[in-house]
Design brief:
The structure is a homodimer of 480-residue chains. Chain A has helices spanning 3-22, 53-64, 86-98, 109-125, 148-170, 176-182, 193-202, 219-231, 254-264, 301-304, 319-326, 359-393, 417-430, 457-477, and strands at 141-145, 183-188, 205-209, 235-242, 267-271, 296-299, 312-316, 398-400, 408-413, 436-440, 443-449. Chain A is α/β, with parallel strands linked by helices. In chain A, the strands form two sheets. A seven-stranded mixed beta sheet of chain A has the order 1-7-6-5-4-2-3, with helices on both faces. At the A-B interface, helix 1, helix 2, helix 3, helix 4 and helix 5 of A face helix 1, helix 2, helix 3, helix 4 and helix 5 of B. Chains A, B: GO terms for molecular function: aromatic-L-amino-acid decarboxylase activity; pyridoxal phosphate binding. Chains A, B: Pathway: Catecholamine biosynthesis; dopamine biosynthesis; dopamine from L-tyrosine: step 2/2.
Chain lengths: 480, 480
């Protein structure tokens, strides 16, 4: 394929994409097929000679689309949103063409520098404390990670490195191995599975902190555990707070937890993967109060801020803490500017070496929407969640299971877990909408998250009519 | 921006991209600017109201392009290639539009199933032993990682988990901490910095194995170290072999190392990040002989197989080894098909949770090029390297520093390191071509890698004329 054919096929692809997104509502949101469906639809080996582009693009509808869960359908309410917008898609086309691998400043200065400035822009939108911004002389700064899981892991590894260094500074006779075996990290019992996984990867102990009746960690709960562990000779070194948990969008009390972590010399990382986008609105910004106590903070613009995956924004107060945990300097990656102080080599901030020019997406989205446009998007989706909440509350057969703060509604039929499992099975099977469950206080709960950029009030009402119809049938068959 | 405007702007972007790539040679390959250049070119904060698309796209030339290192210029010879092709770019546009986050089978079955089959296709192209393929009933299988660094880390963590389990199975009284402190991993002193970094992350000891005169690890060198370490009470558990090292494209002797690792119950991972693509050609496939002894194997189609970043292909013999090291199952990620055996949940195979629909790129590229087209690409680039090698060999002032096997030529002026450092500085400063150095046996060496898809013989000759001209000037000024 030469440039001339790319011009033609690229324009066809742009139309295909626009058609797909304009008519996505006509497709069943969740596929109706059995595991292994795809293998039989295509050859067992790659072709020896080139095939025609027509054949390939026809196979997109024949092979791929029947197996797609349509995350951008307005009837998709599962997990949390995956961001998508036209400006981000345009920027991604450009990113693919430039195709630089921005592991160091020299590998493509624009790639690194735009990222640093975009993270400052975004930090200012959130009113992050100045110490998290790079500016021209700051000690902090931001980086785009692939996912929140990686941000959590990077923060835990930085904290581990710092803790070992601190302990050995006081007591040089202790071995690294012995210190590692005593380190203990904490997170909420409601935290995302990736937090526990980070500790597993980092080979450190992690304890789950119980939550209050609103599924949030309070200061006194962590304090008690830290004191017990210290008394037992362990070394508390890290707490991962969650703002907006995955099951119910609960908020740990970082105004209580932060001062405790600071006092105990524990690294506090804040994972606000989903909720973080909302902090650009003044009315939701109080949810972030206490961030000044954190060592690192992360949220995913690729969830709720219209920047397509992957774009997970992470800030640290002391960039040397992160860089120090990873730095390796082979000759083939050295370049003459790296000691200038103005230069950031992002490979020291992350797990992978290579990285795409992802800040282009942020730049296009922030400029095409403006802060007010982004705020309008958040507010609209929160309003839709509130609308759904009021529909649920008006139906005596149902109950709301957690406070609706942002775009997630946790609800269930009053009655047994089995009843609710059965309801979800019917919803999944009918394929008109798509939800996933969670568990809260031992109860099986349905989660409805406002996901697609194009979800409107009518979709919420349709979804509710559909759910209540299935619930009606279910209750007819199995009267409580 | 609505769908109608996206249609218009998307088509403009396709033309911009085609123009950029058609005329890339006219741009200086390496930017001429000082660190911090970008911040002063754009506002310090995001706009409150939307800006016009015209303003944004004009800023691409004003702000971005002056700071881009043009990896796809035929005058770019630095690092290793970053793959780029039009079919891959088309597939990426589609990937962005579908925008699913394929962490589990249910999150988008097509995303998972196409990936499994594409890794089988690619494994067959390489003639990987059957045990690495998923097929319909295999124990092995492939996965797309973001980068080779992640593949190395994942393999090391799987090996760590397996080693701890094995030791405890024999001696349940030993604690996990104590075992961890005795584990020792090995890799070549020529291995990529990411290998050492994986051990740092995994909190295990890693030792560097010396190499022979061709910069390769031999069986007897590893054997000696393993025996000494065992005698000292350590537990050798992992060896990362490199096929095609970053400094000089050397190949560890896996036919000797593999049987040793198998005998010692050590996990052997093979990192063939760059060289792996060449194994699709029968004449280069012998370089992979011995892979049957490996537990995991990885290379980057995003380097040399025309699939745009990120696409790092990894295969394992026993997928349970990998999954076992990471598995976490919160309710919101469970789905009804996951226990069927046919289903792969790729989140258990990798560090991040989220993942893009990257196999689309492989599918488009393999079908638009065919195996023969891909082989032709590899052969052409190897021939260009050989052509450059013969130019260097014909000039008595220069020497070749390592055998030229694939697309990388290591060379230097006969003389001091300072002389060669000076030569590279002049090359970098002139911005006509771009190279990076390496260190081999204490000598400062220049690396010329054939990178861009569009590099032709004339670019090689131009590059050599340019280098010899600068060398001539240098030697005039500083006669040896």
């Amino acid at each position: 394929m030469d440039a001339a054919e790319f011009r033609r096929r690229g324009k066809e692809m742009v139309d295909y994409v626009a058609d797909y997104l304009e008519k996505i509502e006509e497709r069943p949101v969740y596929p109706d097929l059995e595991p292994g469906y795809l293998r039989s639809l295509i050859p067992t080996e790659a072709p020896l000679e080139p095939e025609s582009y027509e054949d390939i693009i026809q196979d997109v509808e024949r092979v791929i689309m029947p197996g797609v869960t349509h995350w951008h359908s307005p009837n998709f309410f599962a997990y949390f949103p995956a961001a998508s917008s036209y400006p981000a898609m345009l920027a991604d086309i450009l990113c693919g063409a430039i195709g630089c691998i921005g592991f160091s400043w020299a590998a493509s200065p624009a790639c690194t520098e735009l990222e640093t400035v975009m993270l400052d822009w975004l930090g200012k939108m959130l009113h992050l404390p100045e110490c998290f911004l790079a500016g021209t002389s700051g000690h902090g700064g931001g980086v785009i990670q692939g996912t929140a899981s990686e941000a959590t892991l990077v923060s835990l590894l930085a904290a581990r490195c710092k803790a070992v260094r601190c302990v050995r500074a006081k007591d040089p006779k202790r071995s690294e191995t012995e210190i590692l075996s005593k380190l203990v990290a904490y997170t909420s019992e409601q935290a995302h599975s990736s937090v526990e996984r980070a500790a597993l990867i980092g080979a450190v102990m992690m304890k789950k902190v119980p939550t209050d009746s609103r599924y949030a960690v309070r200061g006194d709960m962590l304090k008690k555990m830290v004191e017990e562990d210290k008394a037992a000779g362990l070394i508390p070194f890290y707490f991962c707070a969650t703002l907006g948990t995955t099951p119910s969008c609960a908020f740990d009390h970082i105004t209580e937890l932060g001062p405790l972590c600071n006092k105990e010399n524990m690294w506090m990382h804040i994972d606000a993967a989903y909720a973080g986008s909302s902090f650009i609105c003044p009315e939701f910004r109080p949810l972030l109060n206490g961030v000044e106590h954190a060592d690192s903070f992360n949220f995913n613009p690729h969830k709720w801020l219209l920047v397509n995956f992957d774009c997970s924004a992470m800030w640290v107060k002391e960039r040397t803490d992160i860089i120090g945990a990873f730095k390796m300097e082979p000759l083939y990656l050295k370049h003459e500017n790296q000691e200038s102080g103005l230069v950031t080599d992002y490979r020291h901030w992350q797990i992978p070496l290579g990285r795409r020019f992802r800040s282009l997406k942020m730049w296009f989205v922030f400029r095409m929407y403006g802060l007010h446009g982004l705020q309008a998007h958040i507010r609209k989706q929160v309003a839709l969640a509130k609308e759904f909440e009021s529909l649920v509350r008006a139906d005596k057969r149902f109950e709301i299971c957690a406070e609706v703060i942002l775009g997630l509604v946790c609800f269930r039929l009053k009655g047994s877990n089995e009843l609710n499992q059965d309801l979800l099975k019917r919803i999944t099977k009918s394929r008109e909408i798509h939800l996933v469950p969670c568990q809260l206080s031992g109860r099986f709960v349905l989660r409805l998250a406002i996901c697609a950029r194009t979800t409107e009030s009518r979709h919420i009402h349709q979804a509710w009519r559909h759910i209540t119809q299935l619930a009606f049938e279910l209750l007819q068959e199995h009267p409580q």
